[in-house]
Amino acid sequence: GNLAGRIKKERKHTFDETHRVYAAEAQRALAEFDAATPKPEGDQAKQRKELEERVAQLTALQKGYEDDGDILDVLAWNDGSTWRAAVSKNGDFSTSPALASFREEREFGTMGEQEQMNYCLNIFDQGTVVSVVCDVSSHGTHVAAIAAACHPENPEMNGVAPGAQVISLKIGDTRLDAMETGTGLARAFAYCALNKVDLINLSFGEASSPAAQGRLVALASEVVKQHGVIFVTSAGNSGPALSTVGSPGNGSDSFVTVGAHVSPPAMETQYSMLDKVPGTPFTWSSRGPTQDGSFGVTICAPGSAITSVPNWTLNKSDLMNGTSMASPNACGCLALVLSGLKQGGVPWTPQSVHRAVQTSALQLQDGPCAVGAGMVQVDACYDYLNAHKDLPYKDVAMTVTVGGRNRGIYLREPAEVAAPSVHQVTVSPSFRENDPSLNKAKLDLELNVAVTATAPWVTVPQYVVLCRAGRTVPVRVDPTGLAPGVHTAVVMGYDTQRPEVGPIFRTPVTVVVPTPVPASPMGNQPVVWREKLSTGPGSINRHFIRTPPGATWAELVVKFNPTSTNTGPNRLFFIHCLQNLPHVPFSKSEGKFVMRCTMAESKKETMRVEGNGTLEVTIAQFWSSLGSTDVEVEVYFFGVVPDSASLFLSTVSPVATTHVQSGPGPVLVKPSGALKTCRSTVRPASSSIRPGGERDLYMDQKRVYELILEYNFKAEEDGNLTLQAWLLNDRLYESIFESQLLQVYDSNKKLVAAMDAWPTPTKFKKGDYVARLQVRHDDVALLERLKHLPLGVDKPLAREIPVKAYGSYSQALTGGGEFVQSQPGGVRTALFFAVPFDEKIEAKPGDVLLGTVSYGEPAPKAAGKFSRGGFTVQYAVCASKPEDKKPDDAKDEDPRTDAEKLKDALRDVQVKHLEGLRKWATKDDHASLLSKLQGEFPGHLPLAQEELKAALELKAPGTGEEDAAWLGKVVDAASKVEAAVNLDALAQHVGRRIDPEDKAAVRAGKEMDKQKAAVIDALSEKVLALAKLGKKEELVAAHKALGAWVDLNDAKYSKLTAAVERAHGRCALALAAVNKQLTTEPSKRALLEERISLLERLGWEAWAQHERKALLVKFPKAYSKF
User: Fold this and answer.
1) Facing residues of 631 across strands?
2) Nearest one of 331, 323, 326, 296 to 212, comparing CA atoms
3) Which of 5, 75, 855, 967 could form a disulfide with 1025 if both were Cys (CB 3.0 to 4.6 A apart)?
4) What's the count of helices (H) and strands (E) in the chain, helices before strands?
5) What is the pLDDT of residues 14-57, one digit of tens each?
6) What's the pTM value of the predicted model, to 2 decimals?
């Protein structure tokens, strides 16, 4: 966040001061040398090059400066009474407080005066896990301060309930840019239940579908219904369209889901508005109903506040808005209510409070979709609970289901509102489970309930008798006489003996009647919907359009004309278009456009639509955008509908046939496609299931288990890869699993990426990687089903492969005449898609190439968290790419006799056996056999190579890298390799070309290439050994000899150049050579350690220390914990 950026900037400023000293000294030394030696030659020229390189290396170091952040040393111990831990940034614990887990002593520390970041510790699993808890953003502090900030000396700074005791449970994950995780949420819910908290506030959420499903929603519901905790959560900031409440707010009618409202006093004091406007829901506040018909929003509360933020922001307070702010306001209000009830000894449960908060809310004119029952009222809620404290069923939740699966009646699609319909509404009294003390209350429950509906188009029975088993009542909804638009009603049940209690159950009814769009009978005229309207601050104009059959995309044209200029011409609009699609979260079925108009102007957008459905088009002038505006909206519908949303091709079947039908009006059918991504599949290299730690023992002693799957994959080159477990994607709250987290490590076990349910492209450097996937649940059998779960590795193709469309199969085969045709609506056409037969596919068998297909529509956003994408194409790679065959080498006759062949074969077997003896335990046997063979086959190159390998590897335990005796053996062995090769003959071979028709010459040439490689390896080892021995003359000679065979400027030989330069004291030139080698081996620890050593010898200790710290980050001892 901004703290890390600030600290890194300040730290670099301090570091630059030291760097400038080094740079100035290097420049001074070079200038003095040039003044004293105007024309350097020989060693002096090399000296000048060294001084010049020091300047260049310091410049490169500054340019490549990276701050890896702080590295914490953590020490944990048991002091005899409890576990304690201390944290240090520099290894000095003398000033570090010895902290117990925060809940034990409520003590905390700070990272330092510069950071102003407070932290606390939690210690788990016998000291093996220390959690350092600190902010991931300022959001949590602001939310907590709204609910319960306590400033006795400055009461005007207090939160809503300043006496409330706050337990902070962190769910935002730094690895995921503060995104909440299933693990964090589940542990938090369990903690609240086990520690008997009164209220939970959760100001987080995501779009989800279907509503009211998933393990996390089930855990939250269990905490409420079985453990007596009130759960308050934000509705979301995804409005103003309907059905935009996110999860978990859309998950249960036992939750208190809060929308955001802004009042005139807030407009004046917080936003300094010039003109006053009436109070209103914030434009962006999410609206109900949910997809399964529930209210979605329970109540509303003020959605903005100026209050405390963390010290590390260097701000005392800040203005923030959102339903994230409305939720803690409502939670604080309920804390006040509970405080009064506790003082008066009045019992309460989540069920009684939920009923009270709805019944007592201040009704507003903005409708239940935006504000639910209305504005939360502390006094009225408290009075209600006091007045009805003896209600015999006050703690009973009345669970409503419609048709066995929904929580309300929501009729939106054209077929649903074409005729009256009857819905079976079941009301089920719900008691806390596994509590025998409630059995008497269950037996006694028998209520005579009067059923009413708030709208004449909803018909209900007049009475029903409600017992413990529940009752089902029919509800008839007749939308046939309703005007186009949205209509809401509520079916309510009242206890006839206690009508003053208010509704004991509520069933929302929402009916959306769309406006039909007339289409031309011949399909030759554009299909368009038009509307003119006038808008002002906070105005929201909803229109529902019946999308014509065959429509696949819409073009939205909005024309603005500001009609009042006394407040300035600037206007901010939200144009929100949304279709409610089953099992599709609203984030994937909406087109949300923020438009700013400064003059009379027109703006255009496009979006994907589904035909024969209902499209909401909402035009909202932002609540704080003053002035009036005339707006004209046009929506043009187009479409080309294929038989299938996906095309499937393969190596063996590169042509696919589909039929398309033009939509409601004339359209240009211009099919095109491209394969853009190669998807490889990786199976787990290992899998394990193990129980979680002490944090993972939940309610009723349920233990959570984790499945760990480990995958190995390779990035063939630098670039973006997207890793994903497809089976688990796109689900968090609605997932049947508790959580998933994918962590990726390089070959040194450094964490380089972390991904959750919404994977995004991540940049990887070329190399080997390990991906570790964690999936959690308390059902081991469910985890067992995932033990072979494949991991997808998606890589963008270097070049997109065209997928072309043709009008006939023959044209697809020949590649002639791509299809383009204008046609009226309702025309059916056959299309043949093909990938060019001669296309060389850069993929291996088993890979799948992915892409998109367009039939003329504008390209939608790629499929992801906020888009369902468009039409797709897949190409299965079933065979390897064709390769250019080379003619086989003709075998020339072997001139050796059979006896010579046998002798050589026996020799080669023994040479091969030497490899197995090349270890310390069998060194004597190795030496004996090697000596015997060298006597029998003097000058045989493989034996000389074996002696060199043995000299390098058979080093006595404890022998250092600088041991002179050992290095001498390496030099001698390398010299023997040189001696085994006729260097003159080899030089002649290198300098001439071989006739490929001369098979004997080709065979001899291959043998010469092997000898050259042996000489290069031997000279390389010789150079390294001589450098360590400090024999400069021999070193220069060996290095020069090597230069006769290779280009010493090649990065692969930079290590040798570095050794030579270092041996001559030219450390900057050695550093340049090491850096060059690091370009090909960036993660090799030995090179990085050599680099640090050279920095020390150059006297640049600050840089050496900086890079020593970086080594700790780059080479962890183990994989980081999940």
Assistant:
1) 533, 560
2) 296
3) 967
4) 25, 50
5) 999 999 999 999 999 999 999 999 999 989 999 999 999 999 99
6) 0.91
